């Protein structure tokens, strides 16, 4: 993986974390055990510290950055969807930031809260625990159900498993020119949010 020291600070990656080879870590970045950092993610700790705690994931093409002297934190089992931007904020334990959402400086996403895809969380917003926020700017829509929180936890558990499988099996290869006749399929029992809401 491309890791760069900055002003003498070297990124720290727990051996039980997976950081994709195309992700970039710069400077004051700390990645905890069981974390998954996806392809194309950029964690740029050249102004403030970036922390991804145990079991959290920061998916493909996400950006984490902060401002001088401040931290940007994804707490334990936090889940940051594809293309999201986190800037100087805190994502609480077991919370989810949806795809292409933006969470700004000094905002706090409460424990087990959910930021809907494409939402814009303004600087300083304090999102209560176990609610859904959506929109531009984001507003509290409603409380989350127990089933929705379980759905989120299931998705994060799948990313912890992906991290383990990547550490064990991911390898750069030359692509095949045609599909094998007995090509296996990857299994998975993931339930969509819409399905969780219906049940």
How are the SSEs placed, and which strands pair?
Layout: E1 3-4, E2 12-13, E3 18-19, E4 24-31, E5 36-37, E6 42-52, E7 57-58, E8 63-65, E9 71-74, E10 79-80, E11 85-87, E12 90-91, E13 96-97, E14 102-103, E15 108-109, E16 114-115, E17 120-121, E18 126-127, E19 131-134, E20 139-143, H1 146-169, H2 193-198
Parallel strand pairs: 1-4, 2-4, 3-5, 4-6, 5-7, 6-8, 6-9, 7-10, 8-11, 9-12, 10-13, 11-14, 12-15, 13-16, 14-17, 15-18, 16-19
Antiparallel strand pairs: 19-20
Characterization of the model:
There is one protein chain. By secondary structure, the protein is of the alpha/beta class. The chain has one domain (1-141): 3 Solenoid (UDP N-Acetylglucosamine Acyltransferase, domain 1). It has helices at residues 146-169, 193-198; strands spanning 3-4, 12-13, 18-19, 24-31, 36-37, 42-52, 57-58, 63-65, 71-74, 79-80, 85-87, 90-91, 96-97, 102-103, 108-109, 114-115, 120-121, 126-127, 131-134, 139-143. Strands 1, 2, 4, 6, 8, 9, 11, 12, 14, 15, 17 and 18 form a twelve-stranded parallel sheet that branches. The chain has an eight-stranded mixed sheet with strand order 3-5-7-10-13-16-19-20. A hairpin with a 4-residue loop joins strand 19 and strand 20 (139-143). The longest helix has 24 residues, at 146-169.
Alpha-carbon distance between the two ends: 41 Å
List the domain count as a whole number.
1
Gross CATH architecture: 3 Solenoid
CATH topology: UDP N-Acetylglucosamine Acyltransferase, domain 1
Low-confidence stretches: none
Instruction: Let me know the largest β-sheet.
Output: 12 strands, parallel
- The CATH superfamily is identified as Hexapeptide repeat proteins
Q: How many alpha or pi helices? A: 2
Structural class: alpha/beta
Strand tally: 20
Protein name: Phenylacetic acid degradation protein PaaY
Organism: Niveispirillum lacus
Region (Disordered): 180-199
Pfam families: Hexapep (PF00132)
């Amino acid at each position: 993986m491309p890791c760069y020291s900055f002003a003498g600070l070297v990124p720290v990656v727990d051996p039980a974390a997976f950081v994709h080879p195309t992700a970039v870590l710069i400077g004051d970045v700390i990645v905890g055990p069981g974390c998954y950092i996806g392809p194309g993610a950029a964690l740029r700790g050249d102004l403030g510290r970036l922390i991804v705690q145990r079991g959290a994931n920061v998916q493909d093409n996400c950006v984490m950055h902060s401002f001088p002297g401040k931290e940007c934190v994804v707490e334990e089992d936090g889940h940051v969807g594809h293309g999201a931007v986190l800037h100087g904020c805190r994502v609480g334990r077991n919370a989810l930031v949806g795809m292409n959402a933006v969470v700004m400086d000094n905002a706090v996403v409460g424990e087990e809260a959910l930021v809907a895809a494409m939402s814009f969380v303004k600087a300083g917003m304090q999102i209560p625990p176990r609610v859904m926020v959506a929109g531009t700017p984001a507003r509290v829509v409603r409380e989350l159900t127990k089933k929705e929180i379980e759905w989120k936890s299931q998705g994060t558990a799948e990313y912890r498993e992906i991290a383990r499988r990547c550490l064990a099996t991911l390898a750069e290869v030359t692509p095949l020119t045609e599909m094998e006749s007995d090509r296996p399929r990857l299994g998975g029992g993931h339930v969509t949010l819409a399905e969780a809401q219906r049940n």
